[in-house]
Amino acid sequence: MQDLISLLKSHGQEQLLRFWGDLTESEQGNLEKQIRNLDFEQIDRLVDEYVLQEPEIKLPDELYPAPYFPLEPAEHEKELYANAVKIGKELISRNKVAALTVAGGQGTRLGYDGPKGTFPITPVKHKSLFQYFAESIARYNEKYNCHIQWYIMTSELNDAPTREFFSENNFFGLDPAEIMFFVQGTMPAIDYQGKLLMKSKSSMALAPDGHGGTLMALHRSGALDRMKSSGAKYISYFQVDNPLVSIVDPLFIGLHHIEGAEMSARMLAKTGPFEKLGNFCISDSKLQIIEYSDMPEDLAKATNADGSLKFIAGSPAIHIINREFVERLTEFGRLKLPWHRADKKVPHLDAQGQFVEPQKSNAVKLETFIFDALPLANKTMILEARREEEFSPTKNAAGVDSVVSSKQMLVERDAARLEQAGIEIPRKSDGTPECIVEISPRIIVDDHDAVEYVKNHVMPSPAPGTEVYVE
């Protein structure tokens, strides 16, 4: 106990033990664990740099649009793309690619009580996001005769219910040994005097350390060591709220490998200058992402001679990252990414133990962003993605990027696949499907699968107004 007191005193954080005498032995153990998990040297530095002073957000003097590989290859690129697909398939089949899902969020904004990954998203069978990904992985395993390891980053809040969900559903047919859950790190909220705040007498006010913290969590959990021992070299990174994403895309993986990139990204052609996607930019020969809120208006609206946006490339947060690159960024147990300050209203206990709900910002939360790793990579690569095939974020209950729009995009993607395979799909006057189609990813994960399925199954054209489930 004395060493704990000395530790806190040396860093000016004695207030964390203010209510120690009121705690049970179990509560004392919980608080002591939180304290000993802190990197106080790092916190002292962050307080000086990000809390006691507000860091200046300075954009580079010069920003240029980032180059990317287009969706459809030019004539001189066709051989490269074909070779990339071949290499990508080989890498997948040799178990060189692991899947990583960022799944620490709750479904609160969806009007759903539970981990977001357990939310029912498919339009006919109402499969959860986790089930949809699991069935996709099962199909990839079968298709490429491989065993894709699946790493799922949870949060302290939803880790237990996420694990229970998988257990109750028998891991959706996957081998439990091929799935690893690990918990995202946290950072304490810090008041404007540099003091760590208490949420209760037995716990600090902690918050997730940002999606950049995924990399540090991989290190701390032993996931990187597990990947290394299994031979996995590449990490396919995606977020749990995007059911359209291709978990392992041979072209993307193959181009990443051929280009010798340490971190690669998919891009979407932005729908307008102010779409809420980060902008891929080049500065000082390095790739970086400038947040839509930080992008100067004149650059956001700048156009080419044909009227298209100069800064057309937006980020949907889909990446391939080399395992060895993550090892380098987390060497010696400290993440080599910049931190970002967010001023927040943080409920906390005051010196008398009274619970305070502030009416204005009273503290700083610090987090890191995954895209800040891009300029640290020795080589990067960007590949364009077709929005309707790769990106349907489920962030709201209705409206833009919502449950409604995501389900509609799933229907449209699956209907288009059947059409390409030769099945006639009834359509409304606006071109949208006049039926609800859901394809099980357990049997079809790409256009080629759809063609083969239709070739080997008798399948009538769906009637207008009907629901169709293909399995």
> Rg, please?
24 Å
Q: Report how far the terminal alpha carbons are from each other.
A: 61 Å
Sum up the overall morphology in one term.
globular
Main sheet overview: 11 strands, mixed
Helicity, in percent?
25-40%
Low-confidence stretches: none
Beta-strand residue fraction: 15-25%
- Overall number of strands: 22
| Estimated structural class | alpha+beta
Q: What's the helix count?
A: 14
Mean pLDDT across all residues, rounded? 96
Give an overview of the whole structure.
- By secondary structure, the protein is an alpha+beta fold.
- The chain is 31% helix and 19% strand.
- The chain has helices at 2-10, 25-36, 40-51, 78-93, 129-144, 159-168, 213-221, 223-230, 250-259, 297-300, 323-329, 387-390, 403-420, 447-456, and strands at 64-65, 97-102, 150-154, 179-183, 186-188, 190-191, 198-200, 203-204, 206-208, 234-239, 263-269, 278-283, 286-290, 313-315, 319-322, 340-344, 348-349, 355-356, 363-367, 380-384, 436-439, 467-470.
- Strands 1, 2, 3, 4, 10, 11, 12, 13, 14, 15 and 20 form an eleven-stranded mixed beta sheet that branches.
- A hairpin with a 2-residue loop joins strand 7 (198-200) and strand 8.
- Helix 4 crosses helix 9.
- The protein is globular.
- The N and C termini lie far apart (61 Å).
